[in-house]
Amino acid sequence: MSRQVEAWQLRAEFAAALSRMYGAEVPAYTTLVEVAAAVNRDHAAQSSDAERLGSLDRVTAERHGAIRVGSPRELADVADLFAAFGMYPVGFYDLRDAASPVPVVSTAFRPADADELARNPFRVFTSMLATADARFFPDELRRRVERFVDARELFDPALIAEARRIAADGGADRQRAERFVAAAVSAFALSRAPIDRGWYRELSAVSAVAADIAGVTSTHINHLTPRVLDIDELYRRMTERGITMIDAIQGPPRTAGPAVLLRQTSFRALAEPRRFRDPDGTVREDTLRVRFGEVEARGVALTRDGRARYDAVMAEPDPAAVWDRYFPGTDAEFAAQGLAYYRGGDPAKPVVYEDFLPASAAGIFRSNLDAETQAADADDTADYSMGWMASRIGHHINDPYELYEKAAQ
Length: 409
Fold this sequence. Notes:
It is built from 17 helices and twelve strands. The protein has helices at 7-25, 27-46, 56-61, 72-83, 114-119, 139-151, 157-169, 174-186, 197-206, 208-214, 231-240, 304-314, 319-326, 331-336, 358-367, 386-393, 400-408; strands at residues 4-6, 63-69, 88-94, 104-110, 123-129, 171-173, 195-196, 223-226, 262-267, 272-277, 283-288, 293-298. It is globular and about 65 Å long. β10 (272-277) and β11 form a beta hairpin. The protein is 44% helix and 16% strand. By secondary structure, the chain is of the alpha+beta class. The protein has a five-stranded mixed beta sheet with strand order 3-4-5-2-8. Strands 7-10-11 form a three-stranded mixed beta sheet. Strands 1-6 form a two-stranded antiparallel sheet. α4 (72-83) crosses α7 (157-169). The protein starts with a strand and ends with a helix. It has a single domain, classed as 2,3-Dihydroxybiphenyl 1,2-Dioxygenase, domain 1, CATH 3.10.180.80. It is an enzyme of class 1 (oxidoreductase). One of its GO terms (molecular function) is dioxygenase activity.
């Protein structure tokens, strides 16, 4: 009998296989990974505390992905699939009320346990189309979108059934594991099936993200994100290579004090060939710009008090100019004031922020689109919340603050 492949090993193999597939589909992503690895090596060589937020091996291997689905049923399938990889829903993100609104609500699937994160911290930020929000979807359009989504099948039922069995077993033998990982990866490959041009165009008028979710009969990896130790240096090197980056790095400004939460940037979404079906039935080649290459730098996780200060400083016209009015300059002061999480309260042992920032996510989505989403002047009577989402997908959604508290203790 072959040795059992545990959930964390399945997760590592899944992340690596997705990375290979995405690199083949989006070659500029491979460049991004190469530059990130070079920046990490150089930063580690120059900085004595480069590994305080994770070993060089972990940081260089680290990825997060992003996918989009259209309904609670599809999100429930995602939850069952990722549970086989030891990835569970953490947090609830509402991107509808961001400065650049996106008609989705989201959660992130990731390991919840500190030891599992250390083994392989793969995360997938997963967004679901908020069709119940009348500001984006008037009744008649909502009915047509939901009918379209209900009629499709994103995931083979046999794949989801196998995922449930593997989750219950805590792993699989080698042969079974290889089949499962390959099938899971193929579920997120970019489809070559023709897209209904009229339907896609109608949804694009609501939001390019809505079209990407409900204008096609499949899902795909929207972006895959390596982690870097110096995101400003990466931005500079990518630009030097002639790759067009978005205008800014999202999240907190660079400061002289401890890095907090999450900073993200990306290269601009590339025009990729896709096939479209015209009203007369003719299938033609065209292009779409929906997939991009994101990169992230992670800092220490903030407590609720620290997060309240962060939200306040980010509301200022120039957060960098007033940062030190809100935050101290050392980890010792962060720990003493209860602003961030440290293992055992030791300022030398920061708890890494493992989650996401809705304003940053919405900002990157927006910066890679050709048109802004405009919410209509209508009442939002939708009942989207963490509790609502948990009840619809049949999985407990973890509170990230509870997980950080546990990790600190």
